[in-house]
Design a protein that fits this description.
By secondary structure, the chain is α+β, with helices and mostly antiparallel strands. It is built from seven helices and twelve strands. A hairpin with a 3-residue loop joins strand 9 and strand 10.
């Protein structure tokens, strides 16, 4: 069972998930960019330097070349792509077939009829070949097709000696038909929808941030009352209170003798009388 993301993390990811999914849906990515077999068989590797002994149009200039090869257990297979300038139609394809039949004269090769097939939205023309051994067993199976574009024609030759492929000749035709000039395409209406969703998500995020700031701005502040007799708050006040309580009390210090009662006040006449008594000589004996 897959692990569940925490709610907080999901809340952060969710606003970006929809735009990301729309971006992925708004464009179409090919398996390979440029003129290429888009669905090569398993175990085939791209090897541009590989060339064919006799291509479909051996006498025409080549302005593009690509190749896929596979050689497991000694059974070689190769897909060759050659680009020729100009538009090559049925007359050129028929001429190429006749030239191939003449070159293979005396060999155990059977040529199929020219047939049409849809490749990359275009009508291509091609034919099949079957090469046999002396004992009549299959040696190679070949399918060739010419795919015309506006200014160039791509010739695709698929030759295989792999038992699983040569026993199903139609599979070669299907693989050749996967050829396309791969390019990334964009769905503009969906991109406009994506832009609207991004704006909506951005406005929603700004609205939530503003509402959160407003809530924090209007939170009332509560003043906590101080206890009666308590010293004023703060480290300095606490230190001063502690120092005053620890200071020693002297005779002249108020509060030195908390148990004695204060002396009663005396008048000026009483003070003068006391001074006269102190100046009188003592009586003679």
């Amino acid at each position: 069972m897959p692990a569940r993301l925490p709610d907080a993390l999901r809340a952060r990811i969710l606003p970006f998930a929809t735009p990301f999914c729309l971006v992925a849906a708004a464009c179409t990515l090919p398996n390979f960019e440029g003129p290429q077999i888009q669905d090569p068989p398993p175990a085939f590797t791209m090897k541009r330097e590989a060339v064919e002994d006799r291509p479909m149009f051996p006498d025409r200039a080549v302005v593009f070349h690509e190749a896929w090869v596979e050689a497991s257990w000694g059974n070689f297979s190769g897909i060759y792509i050659n680009g020729h300038p100009g538009v090559l139609g049925s007359a050129e394809v028929e001429g190429a077939r006749r030239a191939a039949m003449a070159a293979a004269e005396g060999q155990r090769v059977a040529f199929g009829e020219i047939e049409s097939l849809q490749v990359d939205g275009r009508t291509a023309l091609g034919w099949g070949e079957t090469w046999r051994l002396e004992n009549g067993g299959l040696q190679y199976v070949v399918f060739r097709a010419a795919i015309p574009y506006d200014t160039i024609t791509y010739a695709v030759d698929f030759l295989t000696g792999e038992p699983g492929l040569k026993s199903r000749p139609d599979s070669l035709r299907t693989i050749v038909a996967s050829f396309a000039v791969g390019k990334t395409t964009w769905n503009m209406p969906l991109i406009m929808v994506l832009a609207g969703v991004v704006l909506l998500v951005g406005n929603l995020a700004r609205s939530r941030a503003k509402a959160r700031a407003d809530r924090h701005r209007h939170v009332p502040l509560v003043t906590i009352p101080k206890k009666e007799g308590a010293p004023p708050g703060g480290p300095a006040a606490a230190t001063a209170a502690k120092a005053s309580s620890a200071a020693p009390s002297g005779p002249g210090t108020p509060g030195a003798d908390k148990g004695s009662a204060p002396a009663p006040p005396i008048s000026i006449a009483q003070q003068i009388a006391r001074q006269i008594d102190q100046k009188k000589p003592p009586p003679r004996g």
